Amino acid sequence: MPYRVFKTRLFNVQLGRAIVVSLLCIILGYTVTFWQAVSNTTQQARTRLQQVQQKVDQTLDSAQQVAMTLTEEFGKPCYAVEPLLRMLLTVSPDVHSINLVHGDNIYCSSLYGPVKAHTTFDNYTKGQLVLIRGYEGQPILPLIIYRVVVGNNSIVVKLFGEHLLSELDVLSGGASMSLVVGRQRWQAHKTPTDQDFPLETPGYLESASSNYPFRIITKLSPADYMDSIWRFSKVSLIAWSLLSLLAGVWVFRRNGWINSPTTELRRALDQREFVPYLQPVVSGEDTHWTGCEVLMRWQHPLEGVIPPDRFIPLAEDSGLIIPMTQDLMKQVAEQFAPQAHQLPREFHFAFNISAHHCKDFSLLEDCQTFIHAFRHNPVKLVLELTERELLVANEVTDKLFAELHKLGVLIALDDFGTGNSSLKYLQDFSIDVLKIDRSFVSMIGTGAFSAHIVDNIIDLANRFGLKLVAEGVEYEVQSAYLRARNVTFLQGYLYGRPMPMAEFISKIPG
Ligand code: C2E
Ligand code: CA
Ligand code: CA
Question: Distance between CA 339 and CA 363 in Å, rounded?
Fold first, then answer.
């Protein structure tokens, strides 16, 4: 896949992830904010309901006190009780009037003195309480009537309702509250009516009095919640929106979509995303593990494991292949040096080396460092140079390869037969090992002409005293063919695929 296409795919994946993260943050933040606003609004409404309910309770308490003062007065004639009624009226500003009733007959009134009037208590809730829109002649004055029963007699205390209504208005705030007695309701900000109203509607909040048969109710609409969210939580909402945006941008940037390909490789190098995969190399004699080839993989946080042909050319162009290879050698040494004693004898590690790496002596230092890490249990180090990317011999390379040989490093020529290296090249770089390319090995047993190339390479290697590695051995028939011709080493899926270091260690035959 060309890098540009890979990059576009990466961009889309990252953009998608950034949007998902942003949305998740928004959903989380808004849910928390809404939940807080809803519970705050509900709590505030409950508190206001209780305040109004206590106010009404207090008013009815004073009516009850008035009534209790009169319980002993039954049996006395009205004219004897009248002064007490007037006095009580004077000291109780909430009380509009008091009637004394025997059975269904009002016989004494604080307003008119002795009277004879029929009355009924059928519409009283629990026989105690009723709301009246107004009284005759002055229909705008609302009254709350409270009755106390004493045997066959009743004391009826009428209370001015406007005071409670204005209390209801003030405490209602935005969400309208109502005083409910039986099926009657007085609603804040509205003229009282005696009309029935359907109760027990879902969503109502109420505070019922435990002393008197009334309750205060309210209903919070979605608009009330939204209003309170906007009033009290707008800063939170704005903060969460910004935070979500930042989270999205952070996710977007974290994986470097805006980076140039080189910067992206450098970031991956810093994050140690380039990791070694090891493929076993076995002996042609008895197929026991004699070494491995170290193959680079990019463990990308979004894309998963990326094969080398998608990033090695770019790494070579940018020169980053050198630190990447150095880090690969370091990782292998860190992992294997402590347990090198468990490796088979003469075990070799083969690294692929780019031509750029041979332009100065840093490669020599890298090999020295690697070999030094294994000083207690030495292993063999092989450098694979690919034939596809030919090196030009000069003073530096002459010296470099001479020094590498002195160190005991073996040089392998990779992909042999696919390029145009000459015999001189084999000599210039003192090649020790030839790697027969997979494309030739795959021809074995097919009768194709290329199969003969394998024989020719084997001949050539024998003549020059070079060791041979056959790559891409996948089938027994290929293995048998190569082993019959004494090919030194075999490598391919038949013996093991490239695998992470930990897996490789667990599979090393004991
Ligand atoms: P290569 O050096 O020729 O590596 C052998 C490739 O053949 C590996 O591919 C390996 O996985 C694959 N292979 C091994 N056995 C079989 C088999 O039986 N069947 C088939 N179909 N394939 C097999 P991989 O790992 O994808 O590497 C591709 C190329 O990337 C390598 O070819 C090498 O040129 C380059 N490369 C890998 N790691 C590095 C590195 O660390 N540095 C440099 N400069 N190049 C590297
Ligand atoms: Ca190789
Ligand atoms: Ca190869």
Answer: 25
Predicted confidence (pLDDT) per residue in 115-156, tens digit: 999 999 998 999 999 998 866 555 567 889 999 999 999 999
Q: Of the candidates 25, 18, 22, 21, which has an alpha carbon nearest to the alpha carbon of residue 255?
A: 18
Residue with CA at minimum distance from ligand 1 atom 22: 472
Torsion of CA 479, 485, 489, 491, to 10 degrees: -30
Paired with 384 in beta bridges are: 352, 412
The pLDDT confidence band at residue 381, using thresholds 50, 70 and 90, is: very high
Q: Is the pTM of this model over 0.70?
A: no
Compute the mean pLDDT over every residue in the chain, rounded to the nearest whole number: 88
Nearest CA to ligand 1 atom 8: 295
- Dihedral of CA atoms 291, 294, 299, 304 in degrees, nearest 10, equals -70
Among 17-31, 235-249, 317-331, 390-404, name the most confident range. 317-331
Please tell me the distance between residue 457's alpha carbon and the centre of ligand 1 in angstroms. Answer: 20
Residue written as token pair 């009355």: 119
pLDDT digits (tens, 9 = 90+) for 453-483: 899 999 999 998 999 999 999 999 999 999 9
Which of 277, 295, 497 to mutate to test ligand 1, by most ligand atoms within 8 A of the CB atom?
295
Asked if residues 181 and 129 have their Cβ atoms less than 8 Å apart, the reply is yes
CA distance 454 to 481: 10
Rounded Cα gap, residues 331 and 349, in angstroms: 12
Q: What element of type H or E holds 253? A: helix 222-254
List residues near ligand 1 (CB under 6 A).
279, 295-296, 307-309, 312, 321, 325, 328, 352, 354, 386, 414-415, 438, 471-474, 491-493, 498
- Residue among 104, 105, 114, 106 at smallest CA distance from 82: 114
Q: Coil, strand or helix: which one is 98?
A: strand
